[in-house]
Amino acid sequence: MINEQMSGMSFLSQNMQSLNISSKNVKTDLKIKLVTKAQHDFVFMSDTRLNTVSNTYGKGDITKKAGFYGYDSFFNSPGSSRGVGILIKKNLGVTILDTRADVIGNYLLLKVKLNGSQNSIIIGSVYGPNTNEMGFFDGLENSLAGLNAQTVILGGDWNLTYESVPAEENIDVINMREIPSRLRSLRLKQIRTRFNLTDPYRVLHPNKRDFTYVPNDNRLTNRSRLDFFLVSTNFAESVQTCQISPSNVKSIFDHKSITCSNRKPFK
Question: In 83-180, at which residue ranges do the beta strands (DSSP E only) sit?
C-alpha cells in the first residue's frame, strides 16, 4: 500500500488516543514512528489532544519528529480533548490552496493541488462527536461547500456507523443493542448524498464484517466499525485497496488503523 509510483496515492487513518505533548513522551514518539513507518502519502490522525501550556513546544517537537520521517504536519487541536491532524509526504509536491477547521478540533480540511495535477482535491481528518452535536455536521457540510473541489477524501473516527439501520441488521456492529446514533448516521448520509461520497471499504468489501473498535477489556464482546474513509465516487472508482489493520497496538492505540490506496493518477 506504499505509494510506489506518483500515479497513485496511499492513505492511512489512525485514532491516536492523544499525543501526550505536555512533556517528552516515549509513547508519543512511538506513535509518530508507527504511523509514518509504512510511508503512506497522507496520514489522517484523530483524538490528538494537543492541549497544554507547552503546546508551542509540543507541536514543534511533533512537527520535527514527523519531518524526520519525511512529512509536513498540519493540526487543528486546540484543547484538552478531541483534535485532528494531517501528515503529508514532503516529496509529493503538494500546494495548500485553502483550509477549513472548526474551533474545537473536530475536523481539518485542506484544499490541495498535487504536483502535475490540474484539479484540486480536498483532504480531511475527522473526529466525529460521540453525542448528537448537529453543529459538527453543519460545519463540515458548509466547509466542504466553501472549499468546492472536484474530489474529496476524508478519513477518521466518525463515532457512528456508515449505515443507519438497526444493530441487528447493521453489518458494522456486533453484540450491541443499538448503533451509536441513528440520528448522526442519517445526518452524515445527507452530506454523503450532497457531495456524492461513498465508503471505499464497502465498495470493495460489500459483505465483509470487520471492526475498528474492539474494547481492551476481554470480557466485553461489542465491536464496531467507527473509523472509515469517505471519498468522492470518482475517486472510489480508482481505489485498489481499503483495509482494516488486523489488530490495534494495545496501550498505544485504542482503535485499529485503516488504509486506502489507488493506482490511478489525479488529473
Answer: 84-89, 95-101, 107-113, 121-127, 151-157, 173-174
Q: pTM of the prediction?
A: 0.92
Q: How far apart are CA 140 and CA 135, in angstroms?
A: 8
What is the C-alpha to C-alpha distance for residues 116 and 7, in angstroms, rounded to an integer?
10
Q: Residue with C-alpha cell 447493521?
A: 170
Q: What is the DSSP letter of 242?
A: E
- The CA dihedral of 87, 90, 93, 99, to the nearest 10 degrees, is 30
The residue extents of the domains of the chain are 9-262
Q: pLDDT tens for the chain, 267 residues: list them.
A: 233 333 478 998 988 766 654 445 678 888 888 899 999 999 999 998 886 554 555 677 788 889 999 999 999 988 878 899 999 999 998 999 999 999 999 999 999 998 778 889 999 999 999 999 999 999 999 999 999 999 999 999 999 999 999 999 999 999 999 999 999 999 999 999 999 999 999 999 999 999 999 888 889 999 999 999 999 999 999 999 999 998 766 568 889 999 999 876 666
Angle between helical axes of 134-147 and 182-195 (0-180°, round to 10): 10
Give the alpha-carbon dihedral of 148, 150, 154, 158, to 10 degrees: 70
**What's the CA gap between 28 and 13, in Å, rounded?**
16
Fold of 9-262: Deoxyribonuclease I; Chain A (3.60.10)
